[in-house]
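User: Run a structure prediction on this.
Assistant: Running it now.
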Amino acid sequence: MKQYEITFIIDPVLPGDEIKTAAKAYEKLLENEGCNIVHVDETGLKQLAYPINKRNSGVYRTIEFQTENGTVIPKIELAMRRDERIMRFLSVKLDKYGVKYNDDKRNGLIGKKASKVEGKEGKKDEFVVKDDLTLIEGVGPKIANLLVVAGVKSYGDVANASIEDLKSILSKGGSSYAAHDPGTWPEQAKLAADGKWAELNSLKEKLTGGVDRSEEE
């Protein structure tokens, strides 16, 4: 059996149900072609390296699958080219090293590294990849780092933080940070934590620097 993975980016302005429908359509296409789905990675909303179709972010999905031959690849690629919901896609044939890498990653063996300092018992701290807080409108890399240092490391942490707590964290960074308004951050973070990327993107379009200016008009 040959093993492939196809990564595709779904337009984030689509309703949540439509995003799920688009993703499931390609799983079903592969299954109908006799492929065995190994894993589906629902990465979610991510910032794009460059704008695509005037979008600065997109909803990422990766499907890893096995097939007797590669005849399904042209079919699924053609379907994605014709699908206006799909912004970009990339299909890759995995060699044994790629298969092992993906398997190790799913088993938690990739994305962790030992701390530089070991305790007396020889135990090492581990680094775990955190949520990308910069996807919250109004939170840049420096503010994200400030939040992480303060222990607010995930979308859930931001969602559960009070506005007063967030303002306190910002004030400790200095006057330039204290000038930011975190009023909408918990709401945005709650949507991200729940995987409601379309709703989050719709909300972000109403914000300027994380602040809802619509009521001021």
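The mean pLDDT is 83.
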